[in-house]
Fold these 4 entries.
Entry 1:
Amino acid sequence: MSPPHSPTSSTTPAPASNGASTPPHGIPDSYRAPLSLGFEALPGDKRTHEDLIVAMESCVMTFLAAPICSEREPATLANQSLEQLQSPLEYDSLAIRSPDYISATVPTIEHHFNETSIKNQELRLKANLHLKRLFNWVGHLAAPSILLSLPTCPSVIPEFARALNAALPLVPYSTIWIRAPLAEESWPKWNLLRSLMGQSVKLHLALVVGPDLPMGPNENVLANGTHEDLVLVPGSSHTMEPAWARWLAEPVASLILPADSFLTNKKGFPVLSKRHQQLVRTFLPREPYVLITPTGTSSSSSSPSSTSLSQADMSKYAEYIKYLHRTLPKTSIRDRFANGYMDYLQAPLQPLMDHLEAQTYDVFERDPVKYRKYTAAVAECLRDRTKTLAAAEMIKPQLVMVVGAGPRGPLVDCVLKGAQQAKVNVKVIAVEKNPNALVSLKRKQKEQWGEALVEVVYADMRQWKPKEKCDILVSELLGSFGDNELSPECLDGVQHVLKDDGVSIPQSYTPYLAPVSSSKLYSEASKLKTPGSLETSYVVMIRNAWLTSPVQPLWTFSHPAPALLPDNLHNERYATVTFDIGAQPALIHGFAGYFECVLYGGVTMSTRPDNHTPDMTSWFPIYFPIRHPMHVPAGSKVGVHVWRVTGAHKVWYEWAMVKPDTMAVPAAGFGSLIHNVGGKSHWIGL
Ligand SMILES: C[S@@+](CC[C@H](N)C(=O)[O-])C[C@H]1O[C@@H](n2cnc3c(N)ncnc32)[C@H](O)[C@@H]1O
């Protein structure tokens, strides 16, 4: 486990747990993410801003998107002079004229960046002036967001990116929503834009979910509408089609549903196809602004057409989306636990070097699943150890040592419960090095267990010299990456107390990893601005991300360790794993780590996304960033090299990502350099 620890940012709530975070309190079973639902008024709509707000409220919607200008923009700015575009806006030319209702309004802007304008110096200047003029007005109104379309032609994107960069300071309170169709060809363009803009955190996506949803080249939708080869949705137990998964890694602020993406049911009401429903249901828990837009925004176009929706129609669409939201599956225990901590980076705990706080232990103990697993493991182990004993020998209790017992000794309770289930006598010794935890542990011994049944010892397990050896050694010293809270080093130091045929629970553990694409995690780590923030691992409930390939194992630690070498050399590890990138190119931001643990025999615990122990909340995944996001083409490979290195007083990881098929020299843009050399940015104290 990893307990509560210092948050990496002062603005986010502080979490805690087994390499994990403090769970949110009091989220009811029925909790659902809130729904923000709005409609889009198109250019040329004659209604005033106030009329649109009234229409929005009468449909019980929460926001609207509407053009800033009252007239539809002509296709070019040829008829406007440079002087006109430099002068203040005319009151009559504006549709959004005051900050009234601005918090419920997303102004939309028709820009003029296209193949013609970028080749004509005057038109290019005009397109820039026009954008700045409107951004200036939006900045004046302090609108929370602005919506504008991704240029369709890739050659236009560098100029568009530069113009946006230049205009961003004019809208300090706004985020930019880039309207782009959810289509294969959109992603490289979006990726180019945000890369040119330096991964700006102000840039978000407004994804247009058109009538034709993309499908990967080798994918197959079965006759019953289900998909052959689903991928996991990070931070949940759900799956989705591979061609859509990459969008989960993007900062999707809004989901735009054009009216022509809906079908009409027998009663004449708009409904979505099964695939559309699955897609919308996957995104809804991420709380996007759902925007209904009139017919004509097909998946191949990023600009809306010009037919408005009647109020009666809008209400029908709104009702349907509300129905989808109402009927979302119940939030899982894990999701409720992690609510508010999704994508929130935390420094991994150091339970060996630091003394954990009371609140951290409280968090650990809120996960009944882990303790049920330990109880089952102890019971199975006790049965196995005693099945060949004669009745007379059964009278002598099995000696079980719980090392790192914590303040309330929940693992001691597991041992006693397991012994009861196995009908085997036990004697328990609980060892703890945290003096504050001893206070409550002693009290529990006195008031609940009794001194005859449970002995309490204040000691660092590595230096402890008990009089007798034990049958079973129980511990829980695991971090989000398995061995990253120094379970191997602690258990090596205490394995001399185990009889020759004694058993350690856990018996072994194995870290797993997968490349992760997540501009969110990367920008959160970059934002920290601490030296080495991109060479440090973070415990984080990963959600806004795409695992580009299935997880693979690195190495295994088994206990008792077969041989101990001087200077802890036997606990050094190196592994290299190669991942196939599927049918879509990706931008990799590092790798995500998990672990699997064999407690005893068939009793296991796992945080792997593909076989996570149901409802277990004790561990969040771990994120290892790379300094330079790595572009990988479809069908290529990514190699990850990880070292576990030990020194006299510390243990650390070093890592590098490379492209094994090109053998490109690691450098910015190709692959990462070796990170955290010598543990310079992050290490775990022995
Ligand atoms: C992750 S907590 C687990 C607490 C409790 N066993 C549970 O499962 O809820 C690990 C505990 O091991 C203790 N610990 C870590 N290293 C230790 C050492 N070398 N000797 C004794 N206790 C240690 C910590 O103080 C902490 O209480």
Entry 2:
Amino acid sequence: MSSTLSDVFRSHPIHIPLSNLPDFKALPDSYTWTPKDDLLFSASASDETLPLIDLSDPNVTTLVGHACTTWGAFQITNHGVPSRLLDDIEFLTGSLFRLPVQRKLKAARSENGVSGYGVARIASFFNKKMWSEGFTVIGSPLQDFRKLWPSHHLKYCEIIEDYGEHMQKLAAKLMWLALGSLGVEEKDIKWAGPNSDFQGTQAATQLNHYPICPEPDRAMGLAAHTDSTLMTILYQNNTAGLQVFRDDVGWVTVPPVPGSLVVNVGDLLHILTNGIFPSVLHRARVNHVRSRFSMAYLWGPPSDIMISPLPKLVDPLQPPLYPSLTWKQYLATKATHFNQSLSIIRNYLSSDQIS
Ligand SMILES: C=C1C[C@]23C[C@@]1(O)CC[C@H]2[C@@]12CCC[C@@](C)(C(=O)O1)[C@H]2[C@@H]3C(=O)O
Ligand SMILES: O=C(O)CCC(=O)C(=O)O
Ligand SMILES: [Fe+2]
């Protein structure tokens, strides 16, 4: 039987003590970030704008391809996800994080687990704490949600399930648009399944809450990282905070556009396209006026499928830069090497060197 994402973390436990959970009242030293804590903390900010793509545009394949190549990210409108569902998932996220902390802790993520309440896994790579709390859903949220809402959990489970189904379909559509722009066809990706609809792919839904912060310029909501996914689709409430990084321009804030979704290329699509689509470094800043929620759908392949640069995208002049590896192996590398993972595996061109 193929393994699940949860299996990966069973063998790579991380210890993030619950004392890491902020009290969100003041900014103690343990939450105060400087460039020493993150080299890019104060990198320049730019007022460039991320592409905003209308998915009903007749030129959509070219637009998506261009955005993936130049930014590794873009915003989309006319994506077909009902606005009622976006309202519902935002409502669920708000209701969850507004629960008393003791209730949230009943569904705390265990050290070797992947689902549940806690701080982001990447917290273990930084000396300073992040001004946020999160909740990760992989598979059915039933058990966790029953602990959070003993009598209303079914309603919330339905929202998560509905959201996951819409996001999976949208992710498949975006994947074909992006790859189509490079001349990749359905027959080139066997693991997309007999109907090329990417049934069998796996995903995590990550709910994030960034409370109002007394000193936002010195705090960090979610530190700079790339996602270990093929693609991530993010819905942010009406409060800005997400920033993406481009070497040539610095940090660019992604303003919330009502009803739109943000899409970013993850490390596995970077590998699949042999680096043509860069996985984008991004982070979340906080503010002192409003609390912010974001809901990320982190989408990847079935965990045991080998991912490597697509034969169509390599030739003697552009040889494969990455070895073949599974999502499970990549997540294990990420759990140890974090943002260095892509460059580390680039040096291993033989998959048997990756455990
Ligand atoms: C599938 C996954 C990607 C993720 C690790 C996880 O197993 C579930 C949580 C995901 C998340 C969400 C917040 C940012 C991130 C870097 C993290 O710490 O946990 C991502 C992980 C990732 O993309 O590597
Ligand atoms: O909250 C955000 O805008 C970013 C969230 C994010 O990067 C993630 O969950 O992986
Ligand atoms: Fe992310």
Entry 3:
Amino acid sequence: EFKPTIAIIVAALKPELAIGYQGKMPWRLRKEIRYFKDVTSNTSDSTKINAVVMGRKTWDSIPPKFRPLPDRVNVVLSRSFENEVTEDNVIHANSIASSLKQLKELYSSKVERVFIIGGAEIYNELINDKNVSHLLLTEIQNTNKDKEIPVDTFLKFPLYTGDSQWTRSSKSELQKFVGDNITIEDDVVEGDFKYNFTLWNKK
Ligand SMILES: NC(=O)C1=CN([C@@H]2O[C@H](COP(=O)(O)OP(=O)(O)OC[C@H]3O[C@@H](n4cnc5c(N)ncnc54)[C@H](OP(=O)(O)O)[C@@H]3O)[C@@H](O)[C@H]2O)C=CC1
Ligand SMILES: COc1ccc(Oc2cccc3nc(N)nc(N)c23)cc1
């Protein structure tokens, strides 16, 4: 039965979990980008591949020479798409359910993990989807209280409320999830930002 692990992967600025500004990311964090690339590209089984699922606006904002994201099956969601595969092997789907159906039909056991890579609308819908079992959240803090970071897009994730169904995993569980060839540093500092990689899963 085709039941790949489906994980959201996102970097957000605490405490309000901001993720964007004017259609782009409010920061450029080199090591965080490498983590995103390594986690979404690596498979424990070398004969398999991962898939990345994104919203149409996120796809549109990738410069054409950099898309599709390499070494991963790219899936783009739009309510006006027909369910099809484009000439550069990108899966077009009009729902997460139909995208999983296409992944099964086209790749079946070849797909190891499915990563939801954004953007805001997709995140805020899929955090509540029963098929999503894991959340890889990079928690970012601004260490410069004299500098305001412009943001206008936020996650609406029920993580820190008392009744939350999401629970933060330990660092060793995160290490196990991403595999040993990815180094998980604590308190990474880049410019005015300090960030930590975290894994959450559903209770
Ligand atoms: N901090 C981070 O880690 C990340 C931040 N971002 C940020 O997110 C923002 C972009 O997010 P946003 O503008 O919300 O755009 P999205 O990338 O979430 O795309 C939204 C589009 O996806 C399609 N869509 C949404 N839900 C569904 C559904 N259930 N079924 C089918 N199609 C669906 C629609 O396409 P259509 O209109 O064609 O129907 C919708 O307009 C940017 O600021 C970006 O920088 C993005 C990724 C990572
Ligand atoms: C514009 O296209 C894209 C925009 C954002 C995107 O996702 C990311 C880009 C860079 C770093 C990222 N880091 C984390 N933890 N999660 C993401 N989803 C990231 C992927 C594509």
Entry 4:
Amino acid sequence: MSKFAQFKEIGKKIVCVGRNYREHAAELNNPVPSKPMLFLKPTSAYISEGDAIKIPKGCTDLNHEVELGVVIGATAKDVSITEAMNYVAGYALGLDMTARDWQAVAKSKGHPWSVAKGFDTSCPISKFVEKEKIPDPNNLDLWLKVNGEMRQSGNTKDMIFPVEHLISFASQCFTLEPGDLILTGTPAGVSKLNSGDVIQAGLANIIQVQFLVQ
Ligand SMILES: CC(=O)CC(=O)C(=O)O
Ligand SMILES: [Mg+2]
């Protein structure tokens, strides 16, 4: 049993990784990064099952991004790749909801992505998954359906930077604290959502979530 077996609190800062799958970078005509590309969402972005995803006012292209979330269990600062997994309490499925139209404008102007990625309800999250339930987070199927139709189906073995590398890198940028969530990037297949759509997503057959888009 992990030393964080009792730890189930997700809810602190959200560190997101962008372009961590080659096919997703390609579908958006983005270059593949040579080191992890990080951005943040505010804690006001979190919602859990039973809450609806709200299309932010003025957004015309809300996209889903299914991602493996890594939940930090102990303060991590400048940790090495080899010790990184000792700081993991567990996992969660996270959706990195993205206002793609706003992100495109921000990208074209060299502006930050905060508004396109950090609006209220932009981080739907599953319940906490114990570390032991995912023995190899770098070989895990993740999938997402919209109205019953499969849109994203990937495996974390295709991540450019594996989980331990992401934790080590992020801990050099920010002090990681218990309850922080690292969203590890999305595989290909992101697409536009409409009001009334129902999203179902899962990490293999370990955990599933369902969210309504409003
Ligand atoms: C282009 C993106 O929105 C980057 C991102 O969030 C990802 O998961 O990749
Ligand atoms: Mg993402």
